[in-house]
Amino acid sequence: LCPVLDFLNHTELEKTNAGYRFTDEDFSLEALKPVRDGKEILVCYDKEADYLDMWERYGFFDTAATIHTVEILIPPSSALFSSLGTGPFWIPENHFNVPLTCPLRTALTELAQASLGAQASEGQVDQHALLQMANLIRSHL
């Protein structure tokens, strides 16, 4: 199966001209549109993979990916380590109006609320959480 897969090139879902399917015993490749002699067979490796997934799995960045993420680890030297653990936490970036959640931001917001108390405004809590997130991101640069 691997030699066949080496001839399939990735493209964004809308530009595919073929699809493939795996079972435990078999592999099938089907043309979705006419493919002229000498033209590339184009498939979408994973329509739900984000920018980072494609790099980790296949060694390239998919510029057509609609969701980009960053992986953040909490260093043991961070004051947040005892509350959050090491992670990894994923910070999504949304290019379309796909509802996404960011577990790190949620956790930092909960910690900020606990730290600042019930009298803190939503804006103060959000600002404190974002500052903590910015510091974590800066520590990875």
TrEMBL record:
UniProt-listed Gene3D superfamilies: set domain protein methyltransferase, domain 1
Protein name (Swiss-Prot/TrEMBL): SET domain-containing protein
InterPro entries on file: SET_dom_sf
Species assigned in the record: Spumella elongata
